[in-house]
Amino acid sequence: MSDCELIYTYDGTFDGFLSCVFSVYENREIPRRISETKNLQNRLDCEYKHITTDREKSDRVYASIRDKISYRAIRNVFYAFLSDKPNKERLILDYIRVGYQYGRRVDNHLLLNPVNFVVSAERFVRGEAHRMLGFVRFSELEQGVYYSAIQPKNNVLPIIAPHFAHRFANMPWLIHDRGRNLCLVHLSKNWYITDVAGLPALKFSDDETKYRKLWRQFYKTLEIKERHNEKLQKSFVPLYYRRYLTEFY
Amino acid sequence: MDVFDKLTILSGAAKYDVSCTSSGSERQNKADGIGSASKCGICHTWTGDGRCVSLLKILFTNFCAYDCQYCVNRSSNDVPRASFTPEEIAELTINFYKRNYIEGLFLSSAVLKNPDYTAELLIKTLSLLRNEYKFNGYIHVKAIPGASPFLIERLGYLADRISVNIELPSEQSLASFAPQKSKASILAPMKQIRSSIEESAHSLSIYRHAEKFAPAGQSTQIIIGATPESDRKILTLSEALYRKYSLKRVFYSAYVPVGTNPLLPVAQPPLLREHRLYQADWLLRYYGFNADELLDEKTPDFNPIIDPKSNWALAHLDQFPTEINTAPYEMLLRTPGIGIRGAQKITAARRAHILDFEDLKKLRISIKRARYFITCKGKYADGIKIRQEYLSPLLLAEKPVAQYGQVNIFDMLPKEETAKCLTAN
Predict the structure, then answer these.
(1) Number of domains in chain A
(2) Do A217 and B4 touch (CB under 8 A)?
(3) pTM of this prediction?
(4) Shortest Cα distance, chain A CAs vs residue B316, angstroms
């Protein structure tokens, strides 16, 4: 066993991850890594164990973190899980373990690696999600559906969904995460996230060009030329995010 | 004239109003409506000058009866003029909003005919948006100075934020450049707005569904550098506005030369001065400073090469160093180089560990500036051993310092103060 590393595999969902946490405590073992099945590189010197997602187990872990550590902790765990950081699962597991040790004061232990990781990953994800609230650009399609493409670094769709569902409650709309091929769909007051391989060619409504033109003109007019400051602008709208922003293309 | 040209003229005319915040209101979307307001505000993009765009910022009209010399829309200025109709504004707002271009509308106006007539047009526009289009997004409206109190009252109930611009920070300046305005005509609506906000807050505490009057509060704008007022005068004014009028924000706008009056400056906008005022403004609102701590009669203006907080710290070296492990939160906030987030991280982390400089690094708190003012476990940072080296070039030759950019804070100190600072401990 000593030269054989234990690796958990799971389906990549948050429930799947929490089921892994359940198994850690159930089997009293700590895997070297927890890895999404599809990212797996099989190595001979490792022992692989696939953890099947079990809603009942994940709900128990969820409630336990919330009640025994803190509401903030379960939020940290969820947000950090949505980040794109490598090896996040194992670090989050360590955070949970530290959390059970210290209870609700866990976030004071910023100098411990897993806490530091989770707290900063949470901040990174929250920051990008907030940015996306502003950077989503809907286009009106022929059928009256509003479509938007984004490409965030983290998987922010579950975080931004309630905001848009509340704000545009009576509109059918889609937010398409191009990097992950996920689509947030809002139809008849319900939203869900689904995988999409590709979308059919989009046909825009007649008004679309007009309002894009108006928006670009408004944006252009708004700058005070005497105060031009590209560096400052770049720090707020990094080039990475400009691809899908109407005013930049 | 089509909407495209109107938008060009009337957004171009509104852009000198710097306020573009959408924060402070938590308006909920109601049944069959569109939109909501987010408590923390959302920026949707940033212009080439680095200013945030969160609202559709336009004037209703730029036909103006007034002739304020500092203003691009003054009646004597030869610029193209236009007016929107309430329907055009509502259409534009809704369609921009649906595409998530904006958080809402910022509606200001020149004074068309007279203040009451203008205010009524604004009310008509906002009612159309709120009642016909069921728009629950953010609306910031300008109270037209001189309009009847009951019209301002109506505006306040339709908007999330209502503001009156002071523009020029003294009575004399107003008299010389904005003859139709007076201190009284500006302060009267501000007073009225304040009491309406208080009343509304009071009735809300009794009746849950009481109507909200300007839930995001009021703000104002002061033009910097058009008239000779000192920074001290401006900052004292801001402080009074925050305290007496419970303003949410005072905005500072470096004067961009748009006037032709020979008494107005033609130079580039004083951006650095504006920046210093904003820094000081934050010190007032979030860091527990008073205006007269930052500036006094002897030094009525901010130092262009050193930020207000460091400036204060250098004048109060007796209160330093700050011991990271024991200093109260308030003192951490007063330490140069440590901000709100840094202070919060320190107070959280030190409950669990005794902090050292290495730990600060791990918490990602930069001590580039703070290291001269802090100790960990009673010791200064290692780099501070080279304190002598900071001193010597200063003693050898008076180096001219660059006007802009980061400079070492010790470069511009009087010598005896530097010596005092460096030998302290």
Answers:
(1) 2
(2) yes
(3) 0.88
(4) 31
Identify which has the larger pLDDT, B175 or A68: A68
d(CA B12, CA B58): 8
**Tens digits of residue pLDDT in B104-138:** 999 999 999 899 999 999 999 999 999 999 999 99
Mean pLDDT of B235-262: 89
Inter-chain residue contact A211 with B95, CB threshold 8 Å: yes
> Which residue does chain B place closest to A141, by CA atoms?
B99
Rounded CA separation A227/B25 (Å):
30
Residue A53 has a CB neighbour count (10 Å cut-off) of 17
Q: Could you state, in order of their start, the residue ranges of all structural domains in chain B?
A: 3-289, 308-423
Closest chain B residue to A123, measured at CA: B341
Same domain flag for A169 and A227: yes
Among the partner residues B35, B100, B352, nearest to A109 by beta-carbon distance: B352
Residue A172: domain span? 136-248
Chain A residue with minimum CA distance to B267: A226
Q: What is the pLDDT along chain A (249 residues), one digit of tens a residue?
A: 455 789 999 999 999 999 999 999 999 999 998 998 877 777 777 888 999 999 999 999 999 999 999 999 999 999 999 999 989 999 999 999 999 999 999 999 999 999 999 999 999 999 999 999 999 999 999 888 999 999 999 999 999 999 999 999 989 999 999 999 999 999 988 999 999 877 778 889 989 999 999 999 999 999 988 889 999 999 999 999 999 999 998
A contacts of B54 (beta carbons < 8 Å): 134
DSSP string, B263-326: TS--SPP-HHHHHHHHHHHHHHHHS---HHHH--SS--S--TTS-HHHHHHHHTGGG--EETTT
Of B12, B257, B349, the CB nearest to A108: B349
Inter-chain residue contact A170 with B43, CB threshold 8 Å: no
CATH code linked to domain B3-289: 3.20.20.70
Q: Strand, helix or coil at A183?
A: strand
Residues of chain B contacting residue A138, judged by C-beta atoms under 8 Å apart: 98-100
Is residue A36 located within the same domain as residue A106? Answer: yes
The 3-state DSSP composition of chain B as helix, strand, coil percent (nearest 5) reads: 40, 10, 45
User: Do both A80 and A144 map to the same domain?
Assistant: no
Strand partners, B107: B58, B141
Where does the pLDDT of residue B416 fall: very low under 50, low under 70, confident under 90, or very high at 90 and above? low
Residue in A closest to B351 by C-alpha: A108
- Co-location of A66 and A167 in the same domain: no
Residues linked to residue B253 through DSSP beta bridges, in sequence order: B223
Query: Which B positions 345-404 lie with beta carbon below 8 A of chain A?
Result: 345, 348-349, 351-353, 359, 362-364
- Residue A247 to residue B45, Cβ atoms within 8 A: yes
E strands, B213-248, where? 218-224
